[in-house]
Amino acid sequence: QIVLVSGHLDSWDVGQGAMDDGGGAFISWEALSLIKDLGLRPKRTLRLVLWTAEEQGGIGAEQYYQLHKENISNFDIVMESDEGTFKPSGLGFTGNAKARDIVNEIMTLLLPINVTDVYDNADGTDIDYWMRDRVPGASLRDDLSKYFWFHHSQGDTMTVQDPNQMNLCAAVWTVVSYVIADMEEMLPR
């Protein structure tokens, strides 16, 4: 059984792609790194996917889906960060009411960093295929007030990234992915 965390590596044809979507790729990598460094071993596999060709129509995501859809019942949740890594506020979530109740409960663990909101609907080109087939999905929600200052521009460079805000995003991703991967049962569908 798999809990998938992800971001994509491709960037637009300008800038470095540091925010779109290097930040999402980085916090996904960091989540797994933190779990390993803490010596935690969840009941389910945590899988990192660094998508490619999202900007060119989601080609990498479609290919991955085609290769793995026969095992779709083993995918517990698919998580994608693709809205920058500014100050996080919570998660967008797609799933049934029972699964949403569980995610709401998990998010209470993040009260010390004031990131507890669960919004309707996860967003992510790379996880859409899975969510259409009723796999629960989550996307990081954060402060988008500066997102379009840099999105698909020459300004999308490493200087955009704030290490403290990225650490908060990585904390959200780590807690949510680990807790779901270590629950007794998969999220209900």
From TrEMBL:
Subunit-structure text: Homodimer. The monomeric form is inactive while the homodimer is active.
GO biological process entries: peptide catabolic process; proteolysis; thyroid hormone generation
UniProt-recorded name of the protein: Carboxypeptidase Q
UniProt-listed Pfam families: Peptidase_M28
Places the protein is found: Endoplasmic reticulum; Golgi apparatus; Lysosome; Secreted
Species assigned in the record: Aptenodytes patagonicus (King penguin)
One Gene Ontology term of the molecular function aspect: metallodipeptidase activity
Keywords: Carboxypeptidase, Endoplasmic reticulum, Glycoprotein, Golgi apparatus, Hydrolase, Lysosome, Metal-binding, Metalloprotease, Protease, Secreted, Signal, Zinc, Zymogen
InterPro entries: CPQ (IPR039866), Peptidase_M28 (IPR007484)
